[in-house]
């Protein structure tokens, strides 16, 4: 038997102000895409400057195949774009919002670490 009292005003307000299900799905997908360590490194590197696969792999001490795989996922999800120059393909960020999100998240992590929470 459930004897818990419910706050009908709070329930109504949350239901009225809740974001659309498709936005929730989009947010979840976005965080899954950027929420992998190699992809975070790649995004951060590309926030500094555009790079080709080989240079990214060398700078981040990752294999070229790993970098290529991660870039493909980032490109499919609209985070990264590419351009060809001769034999090289250069990658850069296609969505600069992601840099702000990463930097704000980093500030949050640093703050929590300083508090001893992480």
TrEMBL record:
Keywords: Cadmium resistance, DNA-binding, Transcription, Transcription regulation. The keyword NADP does not apply. One of its GO terms (molecular function) is DNA binding. The keyword Hydrolase does not apply. GO terms for biological process: response to cadmium ion. It comes from Eubacterium barkeri (Clostridium barkeri). This is DNA-binding transcriptional regulator, ArsR family. It holds the Pfam family HTH_5.
């Amino acid at each position: 038997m459930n004897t818990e009292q419910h706050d009908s005003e709070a329930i109504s307000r949350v239901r009225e102000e809740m974001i659309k299900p498709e936005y929730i799905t989009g947010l979840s997908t976005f965080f899954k895409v950027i929420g992998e360590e190699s992809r975070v490194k790649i995004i951060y590197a590309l926030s500094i400057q555009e790079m080709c696969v080989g240079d990214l792999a060398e700078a981040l001490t990752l294999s070229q195949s790993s970098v290529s795989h991660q870039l493909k996922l980032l490109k499919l999800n609209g985070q990264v774009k590419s351009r060809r120059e001769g034999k090289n393909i250069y990658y850069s960020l296609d969505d600069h919002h992601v840099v702000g999100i990463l930097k704000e998240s980093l500030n949050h992590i640093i703050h929590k670490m300083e508090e001893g929470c992480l």
